[in-house]
Amino acid sequence: MRSKDKTNLFPVEEAEKQIGITFKDSNLLRNAFVHRSYLNENPTFNLPSNERLEFLGDAVLELTVSHHLFKNYLAFTEGELTALRAALVKTESLAAESGRLKLGDYLLLSNGEEAGGGRGNPYLLANTFEALVGAIFLDQGLQAAKNFLKKELLYKAKELYRTGLKDAKSCFQEIAQEKYSITPAYRTLSEWGPDHNKHFRVGVFLGKQKMAEGEGRSKQIAEEEAAKKALQSPGAG
Description:
By secondary structure, this protein is mostly helical. The protein has 2 domains: about 5-160, Ribonuclease iii, N-terminal Endonuclease Domain, Chain A, CATH 1.10.1520.10; about 170-235, 2-Layer Sandwich (Double Stranded RNA Binding Domain). The chain is about 55% helix and about 10% strand. It contains 12 helices and 3 strands, in the order αααααααααααβββα. It has a 3-stranded antiparallel beta sheet with strand order 1-2-3. It starts with 11 loop residues before the first helix and ends in a 6-residue tail after the last helix.
């Protein structure tokens, strides 16, 4: 979706289907996707930016995640709970879920922000996820926001707990060294796009054997994605 002008061009039903929620007030849904850059080019637009919704969503997110972890990880200390919560709500984590839900497709951005790769910007995607949580809370209440977060974010808590809150590269390196006495090597397979919007494809290798590939807006992100896929391969367990 690439809306350019007016509120009524926003594909409400498509966005609702994508997130699995039907809004009572469709303007709250629209508002969650209004980046402030869009207002600079469209000063008469009839909705504000999503920053206030982001502020509210951040609070709902922290409360919901904290409550979930408190109830389900009874043996965790305060420090361990804090670390797990931080891993769940960090920018990269929220951006990943936002990307999975294709929220960037619905963002209302300025031409310049879009040309600069704004739809794939992890910071914007994370903020949009928080704004959407705020909009759900206002439209349908705390329980609906909790249900959304349980489905679209909290499912990762068990995996983060299983891997000891380590990043995928660290986990895969430990497994590779333990099982094969080999340190994984990462090689850039290809890169494309202009300098302001580069994309990379990286392979992770054990010796001469390629275990997996990953893509991302930086080599670091692509390497992490490759490691995640390598961890899911039959030989990694």
